[in-house]
């Protein structure tokens, strides 16, 4: 059974706006899913519905087999959430803030666990400071510590590293990697697509309240990615010979050529292109290839949906 199971989830607001439009999603135990989408795509609404912060208008959402509406307490006990907004009691001490979060779930005091979490997030030296004395980045660390205090089996990270320092980002991914080894399921929303590319097992793309795609990161890159071949010529050209029109080449700023080909194709056409370049009197000095990034694929998917609307 999936750790998080979403079936035809919808969320409508007064006035008819649909924030979620029939979302279906299954997330397995111990996997990291990166959920990508532009502002207003429905990422935060979806997370809020799973965490019980907002109720779906219709559909079924389960966490660990528990319905988030009918069995709210059991479902919520399994979930840790690091929200975008920093909303902390300014005069509370760091350690007591994290301990209190654990107590909200009715769990026994565990000083060793709290110390380990605070050390992981470089907060131990600040444990007796009040929250208002901390920088924005350190407050973000406290939010993460609060989310981990009750040992959740599902952790939601809603834009957790937006506007924070590189050191925090590195600490965050170290914690995420350790939790994954412990079998924790992690759902990450981010604008930093390179982070999703580096850490996720699967990538989901959401826009206008709909899931456009959920796929293993590696197979997504292979299935939808393209490679670009940059061709440096011995003698730069001002125009592409008409005899090479079938290759849809682009002239580079340095007078070389750019050739894009599909990695799924049985033949890339590179061998024939090289022969035709020679036939056209063009001499190749060097070639290099680059794989399309996840960002290229993401932008393409969103554009396709816009075109179809």
Give the name of the CATH architecture of the largest domain. 3-Layer(aba) Sandwich
- Terminal residue distance: 35 Å
Could you say which overall geometry the principal axes of the C-alpha atoms support? elongated
Q: What are the low-pLDDT stretches, counting only 5+ consecutive residues below 50?
A: none
The structure class reads: alpha/beta
CATH superfamily of the largest domain: P-loop containing nucleotide triphosphate hydrolases
Strand content: 25-35%
Strand order of the largest sheet: 6-7-8-3-9-10
Whole-number tally of structural domains: 2
How would you describe what is shown here?
This protein has helices at 43-51, 72-77, 94-103, 111-120, 136-148, 166-181, 193-199, 217-224, 270-279, 294-308; strands at residues 4-12, 18-27, 32-36, 58-63, 66-67, 79-82, 154-158, 185-189, 202-207, 210-216, 226-233, 250-251, 257-262, 284-291. The protein is elongated and about 80 Å long. It has 309 residues and is an alpha/beta fold. A six-stranded mixed β-sheet has the order 6-7-8-3-9-10, sandwiched between helices. 34% of the residues lie in helices and 27% in strands. It is built from ten helices and 14 strands. It has two domains: 4-221, Rossmann fold, CATH 3.40.50; 226-291, Alpha-Beta Plaits. Helix 3 (94-103) packs parallel to helix 5 (136-148). InterPro entries: AAA+_ATPase (IPR003593), ABC_transporter-like_ATP-bd (IPR003439), ABC_transporter-like_CS (IPR017871), ABC_transporter_ATP-binding (IPR050763), P-loop_NTPase (IPR027417). Pfam families: ABC_tran. GO terms for molecular function: ATP binding; ATP hydrolysis activity. This is Putative ABC transporter ATP-binding protein YbhF. Residues 4-233 form the ABC transporter domain.
């Amino acid at each position: 059974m999936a750790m998080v199971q979403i079936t035809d989830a919808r969320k409508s607001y007064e006035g008819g706006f649909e924030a979620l439009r029939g979302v279906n999603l299954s997330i397995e135990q111990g996997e990291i899913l990166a959920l990508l989408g532009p502002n207003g795509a429905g990422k935060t609404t979806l997370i809020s519905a799973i965490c019980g912060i907002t109720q779906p208008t219709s559909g079924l959402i389960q966490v660990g087999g528990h319905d988030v509406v009918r069995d709210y307490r059991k479902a919520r006990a399994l979930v840790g959430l690091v929200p975008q907004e920093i909303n902390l009691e300014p005069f509370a001490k760091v350690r007591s803030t994290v301990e209190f979060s654990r107590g909200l779930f009715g769990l026994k005091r565990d000083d060793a666990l709290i110390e380990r979490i605070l050390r992981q997030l470089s907060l131990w030296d600040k444990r007796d400071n009040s929250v208002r004395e901390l920088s924005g980045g350190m407050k973000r660390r406290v939010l993460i510590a609060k989310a981990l205090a009750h040992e959740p089996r599902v952790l939601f990270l809603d834009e957790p590293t937006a506007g924070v320092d590189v050191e925090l980002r590195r600490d965050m991914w170290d914690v995420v990697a350790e939790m994954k080894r412990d079998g924790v399921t992690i759902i990450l929303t981010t604008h930093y697509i390179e982070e999703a590319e580096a850490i996720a097992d699967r990538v989901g793309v959401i826009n206008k309240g709909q899931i456009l795609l959920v796929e293993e990161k590696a197979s997504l890159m292979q299935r939808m990615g393209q490679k670009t071949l940059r061709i440096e010529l011995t003698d730069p050209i001002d125009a592409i010979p008409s005899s090479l029109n079938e290759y849809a080449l682009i002239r580079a700023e340095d007078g070389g050529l750019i050739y894009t080909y599909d990695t799924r194709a049985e033949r890339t056409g590179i061998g024939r292109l090289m022969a035709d370049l020679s036939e056209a009197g063009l001499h190749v000095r060097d070639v290099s290839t680059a794989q399309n990034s996840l960002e290229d694929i993401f932008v393409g998917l969103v554009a396709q949906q816009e075109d179809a609307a």
